[in-house]
C-alpha cells in the first residue's frame, strides 16, 4: 500500500512538472533529466553535465542499491501499466526475450562518445513529457506522433505481457547495468573472483562492449547520412551533426516558447531529424531577451545561454528577395527595417530613383522579426536562412 501511494505521488509530481503548473523553467527540464539513461548519455555527448543533469544522481544511486528501483517506485508509465494489468491476458514472454533495453542503452552510450546518442527519444520520461504537447498550442501531426510513443509502449505491454517494460525499455536496461556495475564493485571488494555471478558479469561486459561498438558505428553512419536541407534550430542548439542524436523529442522547447515559433519537424529533414525542433517565423520571432528553450532542454541539445550570449547567438541570416519586395518594386514599405531589434536592415539606393532594403550581415542574428512582419503572401519577401557556425 505504501509503495502504491508513493508511486501515485511520483506520478502526480511528473504531471505537475510536465504541464507545467509551476511557472519556472527548470521543472520541465528536471522531469526528463531525472532519467539516468538520458542524463548520462547527454553528459557524455555534451562533454559536460549541468546542474539539471545532477537530478539523476539520487535515482542512479538507488538503482545501484535496488534492482530497477525507478520502475518499481517512480516510473509514471509503469504505474499506468499496472492500472491496465487487469485487461492484459497475454503470457509474459520477457524471461526468454533478449535484453534489448540494455543493448539500446549501450548503443546510446557508444553513440554519445561521438556526440550522437541515437535512441535517447525512447526514454519513457521523454515519451511521457511528449504526451502533454497535445494540450499546448496548435495540434500538428508531429505533436500527435510524439504523443503516441508512450501509448504504443503501453500497448506493447498489454499485448505482449510487459515486454516493453521488462526487455525493451532503455531506462530499464540502464538500471540493470547500474545494478550489475554495483554488484561487480562489491564482488571486487570481496575478492570473490570464482563466483557464478562473476561469469554472468563477464557475459554482461561482452554484450556491453558489442552494443557500445554498435552505437559508435551507427552514430558514425547517422552523422554522414543526414538528409534534407540544413534547418533553422532554436538558439543555443549544438551543431547539426549532433543535434538530432542529443534531442529526446520531449517537446519541452515547443511548449516553453512564448512566441510559438518552435515546431516539430515532420520529416522534411530526413528520418533522423523527425520530431526534432525547428523554427518557423510565420507568426512571431525569437526575442532577444528570451532563453526559455535552453532552460527547459533536459539533454543539452539546446544549451543554456546567458543574457548577453543570447543576444550574440546567430540563428541564421535574413535574405531579401528583391523580385517580390514591395520597397524594391517602388511601393511604400519599411516594416522589416522598423521591426528589426538589431538595426540590421537599412535602405540602399542603387540610383536616385530606386530604394531597396539591405541586410547588414555583421548585425543580423536571424531572429525572424523581419520575416514575421513582412506583408507579402504566400511567400515572404524576406526570409531567414541557415548559416554556417563560422559566420
Q: What proportion strand?
A: 5-15%
User: Structural class, judged by helices and strands?
Assistant: mainly alpha
Shape: elongated
Helix amount: 40-55%
Radius of gyration in whole Å, from Cα?
Answer: 24 Å
Which strand order spans the largest sheet, edge to edge or round the barrel?
Answer: 1-2
Taking the sheet with the most strands, its summary is: 2 strands, antiparallel
Sequence stretches where pLDDT stays below 50 over 5 or more residues: 196-200
Count of all domains: 2
Describe the overall structure.
This protein is mainly α and 391 residues long. The protein folds into 2 domains: 2-224, no CATH class; 314-391, Alpha-Beta Plaits. It has 19 helices and 6 strands. The strands form 3 sheets. It has a two-stranded antiparallel sheet with strand order 1-2. Helix 3 (36-46) packs parallel to helix 7 (100-112), helix 7 (100-112) crosses helix 12 (170-190) and helix 7 (100-112) crosses helix 13 (196-224). The N and C termini lie far apart (60 Å).
Amino acid at each position: 500500500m505504501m509503495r502504491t501511494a508513493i508511486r501515485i505521488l511520483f506520478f502526480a509530481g511528473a504531471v505537475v512538472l510536465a504541464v507545467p503548473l509551476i511557472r519556472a523553467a527548470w521543472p520541465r527540464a528536471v522531469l526528463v533529466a531525472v532519467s539516468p539513461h538520458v542524463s548520462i548519455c547527454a553528459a557524455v555527448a555534451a562533454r559536460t553535465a549541468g546542474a539539471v543533469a545532477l537530478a539523476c544522481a539520487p535515482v542512479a544511486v538507488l538503482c545501484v542499491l535496488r534492482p530497477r528501483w525507478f520502475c518499481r517506485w517512480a516510473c509514471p508509465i509503469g504505474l499506468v501499466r499496472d492500472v491496465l494489468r487487469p485487461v492484459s491476458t497475454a503470457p509474459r514472454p520477457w524471461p526468454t526475450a533478449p535484453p534489448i533495453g540494455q543493448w539500446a542503452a549501450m548503443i546510446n552510450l557508444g553513440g554519445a562518445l561521438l556526440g550522437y546518442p541515437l535512441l535517447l527519444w525512447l526514454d519513457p520520461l521523454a515519451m511521457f513529457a511528449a504526451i502533454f504537447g497535445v494540450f499546448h498550442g496548435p495540434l500538428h501531426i508531429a505533436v500527435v506522433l510524439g504523443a503516441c510513443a508512450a501509448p504504443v509502449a503501453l500497448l506493447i505491454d498489454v499485448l505482449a505481457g510487459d515486454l516493453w517494460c521488462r526487455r525493451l525499455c532503455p531506462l530499464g536496461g540502464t538500471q540493470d547495468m547500474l545494478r550489475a556495475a554495483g554488484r561487480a564493485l562489491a564482488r571486487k571488494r570481496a575478492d570473490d573472483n570464482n563466483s557464478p555471478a562473476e561469469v554472468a558479469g563477464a557475459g554482461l561486459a561482452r554484450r556491453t562492449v558489442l552494443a557500445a561498438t554498435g552505437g559508435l558505428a551507427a552514430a558514425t553512419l547517422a552523422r554522414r547520412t543526414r538528409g534534407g536541407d540544413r534547418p533553422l534550430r532554436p538558439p543555443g542548439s549544438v551543431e547539426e551533426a549532433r543535434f538530432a542524436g542529443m534531442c529526446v523529442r520531449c517537446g519541452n522547447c515547443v511548449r516553453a516558447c512564448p512566441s510559438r515559433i518552435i515546431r516539430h519537424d515532420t520529416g522534411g529533414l530526413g528520418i533522423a531529424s523527425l520530431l526534432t525542433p525547428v523554427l518557423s517565423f510565420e507568426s512571431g520571432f525569437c526575442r532577444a531577451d528570451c532563453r526559455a528553450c535552453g532552460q527547459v532542454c533536459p539533454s543539452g541539445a539546446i544549451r543554456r545561454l546567458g543574457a548577453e550570449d543570447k543576444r550574440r547567438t546567430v540563428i541564421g541570416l535574413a535574405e531579401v528577395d528583391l523580385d517580390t519586395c514591395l520597397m524594391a518594386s517602388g511601393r511604400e514599405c519599411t516594416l522589416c527595417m522598423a521591426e528589426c531589434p538589431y538595426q540590421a536592415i537599412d535602405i540602399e539606393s542603387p540610383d536616385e530613383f530606386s530604394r531597396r532594403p539591405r541586410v547588414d550581415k555583421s548585425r543580423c542574428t536571424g531572429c525572424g522579426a523581419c520575416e514575421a512582419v513582412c506583408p507579402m503572401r504566400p511567400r515572404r519577401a524576406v526570409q531567414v536562412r541557415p548559416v554556417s557556425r563560422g559566420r
